[in-house]
Design brief:
453 residues, Hydantoin permease, binds tryptophan, 82% helix, mainly alpha
Length: 453
């Protein structure tokens, strides 16, 4: 058993609930709120939801458990964790190298995420300025420029560093606990308001009426799996480091299942907001299709929906304010989980304090963000693809293999028994070990190979 620093010196969540807020905060992000709904809309509506649910629980959940178990067992960052588990020195070198790739990947994801979150923040500012009657500021904030992108990404990055440098309890847990309930309430209020507007039912129908002919298409299954992995923040050590701050007495299988359930539920709810909102926008004369397909991705969030808010007068400004506040909150609880990966690694393997580590990692990552702003066309798509389509699935495989093969079965059982002394009799213990050894790695490999085509 690796001798790490005591929990008190490296930080620990105060309770199971504190962890659930932080982990669902990480999982629920920009990906859920616009990725999932538009994916569902263009892939058979409720049929996609069904496939997504099955995959989230049958594949993403076991992989999440792999990260949580490695994290809580080794009580350290991903580089030291993977670098100490294998029995052979070659295995440990491979583990440390893979851990380093994960740290770099997490930083790269934050590199582009901070830019996108900066766009969200700029629209939040624009809607506020519009309400206050400051038209010039509103139009500067809502139109893309290098100065605006750099400025807003900087503000967002500073917020992220400020939270992470506060530590596990006073930073990450405290802010996730404040933000997540507010996010759920805001989401409900927005759904209620949008569903009452003319046109909403067409969006609802598109989302909720299953088109089963599309649901079993192999392409769709693979894209739903990719969505599930990204949405649960898997493959870069985020869930591993959060797991390392879990008190020993927490029951891991049920806690992980709860996080998966909340993530899926919020993705589902986001669909009840975004798709009806698009059809409400259409009623107001906003174009929502391009080349015969529903507009998705950044254009949906930064063009279609703002056009809807503008068409609705001052009620629209309030709606816009609430909507971009929702996205900002979702983005912040995710970005802190990405920054925690390099921060924990620096704080545990160099003499830097946590505060120093957070600022150093934040500064290096902001330089990457600035480079992406300045050389957007060549860099943005490349960084997104390299991090999310290559590095994440490959690291997902590595993490499953480590949990399945590098931790001895007795050690695993002992780790799980701490939170549930009857775990040996549960279906989880009967199914999960072979699953994470064989099924998960093979299926992630299938997604990966598919993404190369
Ligand atoms: N899960 C978040 C979302 O849906 C994004 C996210 C946070 C993430 N941490 C991550 C994605 C780590 C991949 C890896 O938006």
């Amino acid at each position: 058993m690796p001798a790490g620093p005591s929990p008190a010196s490296r930080g620990e969540f105060s309770s199971r609930l504190g962890f659930v807020f932080a982990a669902t905060g990480s999982a629920v992000g920009l990906g859920n709120i616009w990725g999932f709904p538009t994916n569902a809309a263009s892939n058979g509506g409720a049929a996609f939801l069904l496939v997504y649910l099955v995959l989230a629980f049958c594949l993403a959940y076991p992989a999440l458990m792999a990260e949580l178990i490695i994290g809580r067992h080794s009580r350290s960052n991903i580089v030291s964790a993977l670098g100490s588990l294998p029995a052979t020195s070659g295995g440990r070198r491979f583990g440390a190298a893979a851990g380093t790739v994960a740290v770099i990947t997490s930083s790269a994801i934050l590199g582009f995420y901070a830019l996108v979150a900066g766009w969200v923040l700029s629209h939040l500012g624009a809607e506020s300025a519009r309400l206050a009657g400051w038209q010039t500021s509103a139009s500067w904030l809502s139109q893309g420029s290098i100065a605006r992108d750099l400025g807003c990404a900087l503000v967002f990055s500073l917020l992220t560093v400020a939270v992470v440098s506060g530590g596990v309890k006073a930073g990450i847990e405290r802010w996730s606990e404040r933000i997540m309930p507010a996010l759920v309430i805001l989401l409900m209020v927005l759904i209620g308001y949008v569903l009452l507007q003319p046109g909403a039912s067409a969006g609802l129908r598109l989302y909720l009426v299953p088109d089963l002919s599309r649901a079993l298409h192999p392409q769709l299954i693979l894209s739903a799996l990719g969505q599930a992995f990204f949405s649960l923040s898997l493959g870069v050590g985020t869930m591993l480091i959060y797991g390392s701050y879990l008190p020993r007495t927490v029951n891991l299988p049920t806690t992980g299942a709860l996080v998966t359930l909340v993530d899926v539920a919020i993705a589902f709810l986001a669909g009840l907001l975004i798709l009806p909102a698009m059809f409400v926008a259409q009623q107001q004369g906003v174009e929502i299709h391009r080349d015969g397909l529903l507009i998705a991705g950044p254009d949906l969030i930064f063009q279609v929906l703002p056009a809807l808010f503008a068409a609705m007068g001052s009620a629209g400004s309030l709606l816009g304010l609430a909507f971009f506040a929702l996205l900002t909150m979702a983005a912040l609880t995710s970005s802190i989980s990405m920054l925690e990966v390099p921060t924990a690694w620096l704080a545990e393997s160099t003499p830097l304090s946590r505060r120093g580590a957070a600022w150093l990692a934040g500064t290096v990552i902001f330089i990457l963000t600035a480079a992406i702003v300045l050389w957007f066309d060549p860099l943005f798509g490349w960084v997104v693809r390299a991090a999310t389509e290559v590095s994440e699935p490959l690291m997902g495989i590595v993490l499953c293999l480590f949990a399945g093969w590098a931790i001895h079965r007795d050690t695993l059982l002992a780790e799980l028994r701490r939170g549930d002394w009857m775990v040996e009799n549960t279906w989880f213990w009967k199914i999960w070990p072979p699953y994470v050894r064989f099924v998960c790695p093979l299926l992630i490999a299938a997604v990966f190979v598919n993404s190369l085509r």
